[in-house]
Amino acid sequence: MPDLSLNRFVARGTNAERLAFTPDPPTPASGPDPGYVFYETDTGDFYAWDGAAWDLVNAAGAALPGTIGATFDGGGSALTAGAVRYVLVPYAHTITANYMLADQSGSAVVDVWRDTYANYPPTVADSITASAKPTLSSAIKSTDSTLTGWSTSGAADTIYAFKLDSVSTIQVLTVQLVVTRD
Fold this sequence. Notes:
Mean pLDDT is 85; it is low at 1-7. The chain has one helix spanning 15-19, and strands at 9-13, 36-40, 46-49, 54-58, 65-73, 84-89, 93-116, 135-144, 153-154, 158-168, 172-181. β3 and β4 form a beta hairpin. The two termini are 34 Å apart. The protein contains 1 helix and 11 strands; from the N terminus they run βαββββββββββ. It has 2 domains: 9-58, no CATH class; 65-181, Sandwich (Jelly Rolls), CATH 2.60.120. It is mainly beta. 23% of the residues are buried. Strands 5, 6, 7, 8, 9, 10 and 11 form a 7-stranded antiparallel β-sheet that branches.
């Protein structure tokens, strides 16, 4: 049994033990709710206490979502094309969408390149976007979950390069790829 005098606890046991767990985690009198997590040994599922019930956080074998991305910052001036940002992704993954967020309405196109750590740095020959590059067109945000023509599977220890192909008006631009861990 965990020490309930702590601000949080992690417990483990079977589904029946989780359902019969007494006392349920206490509700804090004030301040943020501390973290209470239960790992079911019979299913491999993780649950978190929401103050009234145990909520499934992640089912065993479920893909964990995340994002990878880069920010281009003009330091108070409009961005100029040509900048490249590099990101290492240490786990196997699949890209499911991309988002672009700008500090103000404008236009931008970003190409995404991918290669192995051994072949760093990626180049334009390693583009994964085909003709569907992340694009912002006289807007402050954009999203694409279709990814037409994209190569969406990435291995562990992949290097991504985000290259700002064109831009107008924008001073800060963030490009994010939504991924699930494989």
